[in-house]
Design a protein that fits this description.
Elements (H helix, E strand, L loop, with lengths): L15 H9 L8 H16 L12 E4 L12 E5 L3 H11 L2 H19 L11
Antiparallel strand pairs: 1-2
Helix pairs in contact: 3-4
Length: about 130
């Protein structure tokens, strides 16, 4: 997309190898991974002028799974990582749109619960 001249927000990748290492090592992060993530986060913050966790200039991420071969409909995505009780207030101030901000927060909670915590969405619906 960047080669086509389309605006693509900065980000970073945690490799499949790191994920496999985590899974194969009793769910322990590979040595040095957090330092690499912190350095990558700092680079994104510097490029965007936004800060993860800052209510005044909040930075949000989309966390996407990947595969060697793309399979439409099979990619898990957590939107709006970085939204919390403080940053949602900042998003309201920036956008002047509380409905938008709280809907984004709802989506984050919904997707994080489903994908990261493996909460069955059906268990949360009312009968």
């Amino acid at each position: 997309m960047t080669h086509m001249g389309l605006p693509v927000p900065p980000g970073f990748i945690i490799t499949t190898e790191a994920c496999l290492s985590y899974s194969g090592n009793k769910r322990r992060l590979p040595k040095g991974l957090m330092e690499e993530v912190q350095a990558a986060l700092k680079r994104v913050e510097e490029k965007t002028g936004k800060v993860l966790g800052s209510p005044q200039s909040p930075l949000f991420f989309s966390v996407r799974s990947g595969a060697a071969i793309s399979m439409p409909g099979m990619m898990d995505t957590i939107l709006n990582l970085g939204l919390n009780n403080e940053t949602v207030e900042g998003l309201i101030q920036i956008t002047s749109d509380g409905r938008f901000a709280y809907d984004a927060y709802r989506r984050f909670i919904q997707l994080f619960g489903k994908i990261a915590l493996e909460i069955d969405e059906r268990s949360l619906t009312r009968s």
